Amino acid sequence: MTDMNKDNFVEIDYSIEKIAIVKINRPESKNALNTEVRKQLAQAFTELSFNDDIHAIVLTGGDEVFAAGADLKEMATAGSTDMMLRRTERYWNAISQCPKPVIAAVNGYALGGGCELAMHSDIIIAGKGAIFGQPEIKVGLMPGAGGTQRLFRAVGKFHAMRMIMTGAMVPAEEAYIMGLVSQVTEDDQTIPTAIKMAQSLAKMPPIALQQIKEVALMSEDVPLNAGLTLERKSFQLLFSTEDKNEGINAFIEKRKPSYQGK
């Protein structure tokens, strides 16, 4: 089953058990991220965050382009106050705070806001023809949705500075070497590879996956000792789950586990 909103900018495909495929569908603008697209993405991820039947999410723009950036026409006459009052960070937060594993399947351009959107995921699968970049400098701007922060954390100062300050376009293979991409595939295998990985994740114990994601992402913001403490407490918490018992018993009994998220 596929759910589509009235403007057909975002589709959610539920046809694969325990998996949701979120697709940006604005091909006439190369999936440019205008305010309406961001609102609809936020709504989709908010709903999926509370949907216990969904254990993993694939985020894609389709076979041709992921998202070519923000919609500059929407920004052309905007002033500072206009941009502040749009509060677009609320839409991005719905994605970054999603407790489920999110896999970005990137074909074609992932530029500006599109690159930032991909970096909101947990894993990035890129087709060989994918291109990443933060070209905002070329129109007198800078990244405004995490490009100066998440990119630094992903690839380090010197790769990030080159991309942000020059607006350089980075092909998928180079992005993989830099650490921006998890895996590179043939272009026609990008989405199938992401779906296969999502299916694998959907078989894992959901509570453990959520704890892993929460603790790992916190490591970017807290000192090592605090992170280790949080990790230890989360590790101990999992010993109260039924899934821990099922996992260990299945291992001992040499059978496949059946996790219930309890």
Structurally, how many domains make up the residues? 2
Instruction: Please give the order of strands in the largest beta sheet.
Output: 1-2-3-4-5-7-10
Helix count? 12
**So what's the overall shape?**
globular
For this entry, what is the oligomeric state of its chains?
A: single chain
Percent range for helical residues? 40-55%
Largest sheet: 7 strands, mixed
User: What percentage of amino acids are in beta strands?
Assistant: 15-25%
Mean pLDDT over the residues: 92
The CATH topology of the largest domain, please?
2-enoyl-CoA Hydratase, Chain A, domain 1
Question: Are there runs of 5+ residues with pLDDT below 50, and where?
Answer: none
| CATH class type of the largest domain | Alpha Beta
Radius of gyration using CA atoms only: 19 Å
* Class inferred from helices and paired strands: alpha/beta
Number of strands: 10
CATH architecture of the largest domain: Alpha-Beta Complex
Order of helices and strands: EEEHEHHHEEHEEHHEHEHHHH
